[in-house]
Amino acid sequence: MKEIVVISGKGGTGKTSVVASFAALAEKPVLADCDVDAADLHLVLSPQINQRHDFSGGKGAKIAPEKCTGCGICFDLCRFDAIHEGTTFDEFPKVNYTIDEIACEGCGVCAWFCPEKAIAFEEVVNGEWYISETRYGPMVHAKLGIAEENSGKLVTLVRREAKKIAEETDRSYIIVDGSPGIGCPVIASIGGADLVLIVSEPTVSGEHDLERVAQLAKHFGVPAMVCINKYDINRDMSKRIEEKSESMGLTLAGNIRYDKMVTRAQIAEAAVVEYTNLPVADDIRNVWRNVVAVLKNEGTEKNGK
Predict the structure, then answer these.
(1) What ranges make up the beta strands (E) of 135-262?
(2) What residue ranges define each of the domains in the chain, with the CATH number in brackets?
(3) Do residues 111 and 61 lie in contact, with contact meaning Cβ atoms separated by under 8 Å?
(4) Model confidence over 129-186: pLDDT tens digits?
(5) How far apart are the C-alpha atoms of 38 and 36, rounded to whole Å?
(6) Helix, strand or coil, per DSSP, at residue 76
(7) What is residue 145's DSSP assignment?
(8) The whole model's pTM is what?
(9) Which of the 8 DSSP states describes residue 232?
């Protein structure tokens, strides 16, 4: 079983389209969408959800009004302006406090120092994760709530569940749609993977972002390959990126040409390789063949040692 993570230095480079086609080309894959902040692999693969689970990545504070005496200690201690002061008017005016769930960082200081123990500090639901079935095999994916954090924890959970399914059902590949950039969810996406495929584009920002994400993969000791999407819209820049990749010790997996069929495939909720037989589909097949070849060579080298 091999785990391949497809990432990019920025959003919009086409990595999800590549992952969808890999799903169609791979033998017995398990799919994992780890771009939990903006998951969209489901838009192409139309998964049927079999299991739905809440995700809790942290804790939050909540004031019990009947216990609160209005001392204001929590208001004074909160450094995130998450506690709001107000006044109620029953028989007599009374100061009361409420917690803004979005502003609360879950540090627990207010609950710790409340003399009346009027603040509960409990786990909160940050999102959902799912185990689904697609036309190409099982898929684990997730959705993080609006303005929620702990995406790295959710990515780790998605990868763990995908690996569990792969082991239980004797799957050949885990294909991961990783997050863009170099932040926490990307780190959680690539750690321990067998191979990272970096999808770049022939622009100045594409060249710069490739260098950053390649350094991240190198830092964590994960072998990396490069694929340049829409390479033919700026062949000179594509050549520069190829040279930069070579200087960084990265293997070129192949280039994918620009074609409007990619967009049409997305609209049709289909992978490019199942939607058309035009050269753009051959480009993606070539990238997949090169990725598999590198994985097999690494496996042979490991077995030979």
Answers:
(1) 137-144, 173-180, 195-200, 224-229, 251-256
(2) 2-56+126-304 (3.40.50.300), 58-124 (3.30.70.20)
(3) yes
(4) 999 999 999 999 999 887 676 788 999 999 999 999 999 999 999 999 998 888 888 9
(5) 5
(6) helix
(7) P
(8) 0.86
(9) G
